[in-house]
């Protein structure tokens, strides 16, 4: 049984990771920035790993005017910290360090390593600033809508045997169902891409400054943002900076004319072949090292916030763009709109994800997605093992970097499809909603929406089967499940310990932990076994789901979860 739909692919293979590290170690690697997200008052320590033949680099060259450094730039000496042995290259590497003094004001710093007469090709950038995730995200519950399959005006999206075409879902359909979304208690809507696109999914954009007529108009988006905001709901758009559609007029000019001013907006080899997103020919990769291309993308991101009042972006395939792009993107977006939220689709190991601290507000947590499925569905971990992983994960990232949790999404099999048991979905959601990670509900998840076949077929992934039209007839929905999710959302938003409390695991055969914030103390107990379990309570507790009172002991039925507020301390 597949628990994570091969989301990580080769990243789970040791030989792949070894080969990747070997390739990385053929160049200079910026290994660490301390502090990870520096402010203008911080002294900054930078550490690098350099291959053996680069040991002649003795200076760090840097500019603070957002230009690329050269031999005339400011320089500081490098300290050769230690010699490292790396099995992946079966050779030595040299660790070097440098310190940059406090800069006193917000700015972007660009750096290279070099000697007295030679400078490296590797450019690194980072910003020093006071930016942070907006306060409103702490109490957010995100409802993820796949626009083409959600609703057509007030109606269901019509069924078709061809799931690769647009089926008619639109922005008016989202507007017509705002009351439903509000009733769930969710307060952020994340929309799949709505920009001009020939595809039903919208991840191949033909115009970053226009909305596809199939999904609506700019007036529809303004109406949605305004009506949602009046209900206390913010709108986040799905933004695709890494690649665009081969139908985009800029790309057509570039591919048809080798002398086009847009030629360098893309990455062509000497034979005229161009780089793409994951080998998909109609999704050419944008060369975001090119300043004009970068400005075009960043200005588009600014446009939809400035002119339409959207509250930020989910950033598609965030590992694709040149890493320095994110320094520029985040600095400009947060400098203009500090109260917006920007989180990336970073499908990589936590070691690599951590490098985005200070460059984004947060990330979708694919590692958490994976281990939740492994624990609740696959029974891979004992409760104590699972809790230790959760505890270490929370300590690994800084509190200023928001992880976003999900049980399913538009690229994965539905949780119910894999689990085959509604009880498993409920206890997994109980766990999800009692963690500090910002929870996402993928449209239909809360009503028991499912699929009729697996998305995996050999080496192919058929995403369409997890993107089926949402059922709006009451008889096609699981009302008990909807009410359960409503209760979870309400409880989470009402209890600060659940969204910002300390996580205190209780290591035993039962999954249980405290969430503590100030005087509030909540005990979460989840019985993932097939039998009844007696659980000793250290006091008197109120069940926030059923409002029952439990004193000193509770009998746990199989596959049940409890969120218990201690009332006797």
Helix content: 25-40%
- Mean pLDDT over the full residue set: 96
- Domains, number: 4
Strand content: 25-35%
Radius of gyration: 25 Å
How many beta-strand segments? 28
Order of adjacent strands in the largest pleated sheet: 9-10-13-16-17-18-19-20
Sheet with most strands: 8 strands, parallel, barrel
- Number of helical regions: 15
Shape, please? globular
Please write the CATH class name of the largest domain: Alpha Beta
| N- to C-terminal distance | 45 Å
Structural class from helices and strands?
alpha/beta
CATH topology category name of the largest domain? TIM Barrel
CATH homologous superfamily placement of the largest domain: Glycosidases
In the CATH hierarchy, the architecture of the largest domain is Alpha-Beta Barrel
Q: Low-confidence parts, pLDDT < 50 over ≥5 residues?
A: none
In short:
Helices cover 26% and strands 27% of the residues.
